[in-house]
Structures are given as C-alpha cells and as structure tokens.
Amino acid sequence: MDLYLLKEVWLFSLSILYGVIILLFYDCFRVLRRLIPHSSVMIAIQDLFFWIVTGFSIFALLYRYNNGSIRGYCILGMGLGMLFYSIAISPFFVKINVAIGNFIKKHLRKYKKDFIMIYKKKNRSRRRRSHTFFYKVKKFLYGK
C-alpha cells in the first residue's frame, strides 16, 4: 500500500475515534444534567464549553494529521463514529451512570444529617475561636 494512502486510512480511523470521544464527552454532560437539575443558563454555558472544546479538538486533529485541510472523509469518519456510539454505547452508558449517580445520591441523602452535624460541630469551634480573636482585636483597637 502507498504511504499516502496509509496516512489517509489512519486519519479516517482516527476521525471515527474522535467521533466516539466527542459523544462520550457530551454524554458526561447528559448524565450530569440528569443527576443535578440545571437552569437554562447553565445548560447554555455547558453547551458553549462543549462546542468550544470540540471545535478546538477537531481543529487540532485536522491541523496535526492533515495540515489543516478539511477532507470529506474526516467529517464522514466523525459522523460514523458518532452514529456508532449513539446507537451501540450511549444508551447503556447514560443509564448505567445515572443509576450509579442516583445510588450515590440516595446514600448521601441517608447520611446528610450526620454530615451536617459534623460540619456544624467543627464550624462552631471555629466561630468561637474567630469570635474570640475579633473580640480581642476590637478590644485592642477601641479599648472596649
């Protein structure tokens, strides 16, 4: 096989992998959105972040392996990678990670009161120390 043709096949394979990685990255946002309610502004910020990172990574791929020129087979490869991921992997990935996240949330809620009580005990002792410190500073400065 010609060396140039091998480079093209390598780039096509890499494009398929990039398509899978891009949707995997977006699925992480989807899982996060299902576990924690987000406002529309926060969703817009996350989407903007996603597209900026995705755009830079695609540009880096094309710049590094194809001297910056956009080829149709690169776009086709990314599309095929995304299609494969969205059909074969994405539904299971999202369901499993949401289930794990809900399990963790359920158990954290169970022990939430204990965490809050421990935090309040630690915070109470800090308040006493800080109150004493500021009281001494106030007394020193104002003589009261």
UniProtKB/TrEMBL annotation:
TM segment ranges: 12-29, 41-63, 83-104
Keyword terms: Membrane, Transmembrane, Transmembrane helix
NCBIfam families: spore_yabQ
Signal peptide: none
Protein name: Spore cortex biosynthesis protein YabQ
Superkingdom as given in the UniProt entry: Bacteria
Pfam families: Spore_YabQ
Organism: Candidatus Scybalomonas excrementavium
Entries under InterPro entries matching the protein: YabQ (IPR019074)
